[in-house]
Amino acid sequence: LNRLLTAGLIVVAVVSRFSLVQTYILIAYSDLPCFLVLAFLAHRRFKLRIRINPVRIRQILRESFSLTGHDALALLSGQADILLLLPLAGSISVGIYALAMRVTDPLMNVVYAYGNGIFPFLCSKFEEGRAEFAQLYREAMRIMALAIIPLAVFVSIEAPAIIALLGGEHYAAAVPATRILMWSVTAAFFGNLTLQACMAANQEHRIPYATGLSLAANILANLVFIPYWQTTGAALAALSSEIVGLCLFSSILAHYVYVSKVVVALLKVSLGNVPGLIFLLWQQHMPVLYVLPLFVLLTLIGYIATSALSIKDVQMARQILVARREKRYA
User: Fold this and answer.
1) Which among 144, 196, 187 has a CA at the least distance from the CA of 313?
2) How many CA atoms lie within 13 A of 170 on its CB side?
3) Cα distance between residue 121 and residue 116, in whole Å
4) For the chain, percent helix, then strand, then coil, each to nearest 5?
5) Are 99 and 167 in contact (CB under 8 A)?
6) Which of 48, 51, 80, 269 could cysteine-pair with 308, CB 3.0–4.6 Å?
7) What is the C-alpha to C-alpha distance for residues 306 and 70, in angstroms, rounded to an integer?
8) How far is CA 109 from CA 19, 73, 186, 262, 320, in A?
9) Do 177 and 97 form a contact (C-beta atoms < 8 A)?
């Protein structure tokens, strides 16, 4: 219901021709009615009541400041490009950039789902010891890289066809931004997992500082790049911000994992994508539906050749699929 309400408010904003600021305010407060409904249901079922205790509020805010501060800074960093693009480049650039974000932003849900899903395992392995924690982190990074890097390669090369499908040939200016934003999302995949590992290693008190520096780099890059390259500049700022954040979170985690082994695993995955990349560059005019199966096949061959993907991984994936099928028919 909350999502339907948000979608309805977006329709109202578009039909009523609200400004960007008015639309942001409308959507930001769209969760308030649902909160009130949930509070009413909690009161009826569990007899919960809203009580205002200044001492308790101050204690909660102080203890949760590191993570809530990170969330606030990350939210501002994620919106900085749009907020700065409008006054620096105009509404047309915002529309072009929004189309590029339409291709890449849905992947962020996968980022959060993967990071939140792996977090309990990271916590348990951290209690067991550094070796176990470092091994799980390396494997989680490798598995994620096996999926996101070929996707980034494919979207980067096929961006003209994807933009033409979603927006038509009139939005060809969104192609460079789409390519760069795809690699920004790739960096965000690794950055979010590294962030979860930092929290599992009880380093949450250092996280807001890294997020704040990443936000500062994002704003500075936007102010420098947008006047020269408009949407492409905003995408470059987003990419640079994600890289800065990844490097800072990795430096926090360096005492608990073996960074060199993680880099080697990522290099193997990257080299495994070279055959698929060469094929895409060679067959740029072939229809996307014809290119995709051959690209996946060449990527798998490249992974096996570089030992980025082993027979053990294939067997594990097969066991998971068989177990899910048996559970479904049980």
Assistant:
1) 144
2) 4
3) 10
4) 85, 0, 15
5) yes
6) 269
7) 37
8) 27, 18, 13, 24, 22
9) yes
- For the cut 70, the answer to whether the pLDDT of residue 43 exceeds it is yes
Please give the structure tokens belonging to residue 161: 């066809």
CB 81 within 8 A of CB 98: no
Q: For 303-330, what is the mean pLDDT?
A: 69
Nearest of 75, 23, 87 to residue 223 by alpha carbon: 87
Phi, psi of 129 (to 5 degrees): 150, 170
Long-range contacts (CB closer than 8 Å, 24 or more residues apart) made by 87-93: 88/222, 88/223, 88/226, 88/227, 89/226, 89/227, 89/230, 89/231, 89/234, 93/230, 93/231, 93/234
Q: What is the pLDDT of residue 42?
A: 82
Structure confidence by residue, pLDDT tens digits, 170-188: 888 899 999 999 999 999 9
Largest Cα–Cα distance in the chain? 66
The alpha-carbon radius of gyration of the chain (Å, integer) is: 22
State the helix-helix crossing angle for 130-167 and 259-272, rounded to 10 degrees.
30
309 three-class SS: coil
The string of pLDDT tens digits covering residues 108-126 is 888 888 888 889 989 999 9
* Gap between the Cα atoms of 168 and 77, Å rounded: 29
For residues 81 and 37, what is the distance between their CA atoms, to the nearest angstrom?
34
Contact yes or no for 236/178 (Cβ under 8 A): no
- pLDDT confidence tier of residue 317, bands split at 50, 70 and 90: low
The residue length of the chain stands at 330
Can you tell me the distance from the alpha carbon of 178 to that of 182, in angstroms, rounded to the nearest whole number? Answer: 6
Residue linked to tokens 């996946």 = 296
CA–CA separation, 166 and 99 (whole Å): 8
Q: 197-243: per-residue pLDDT in tens?
A: 999 998 988 999 999 999 999 999 999 999 999 999 999 999 999 99
Beta strand extents in 273-322 (DSSP E only)? none
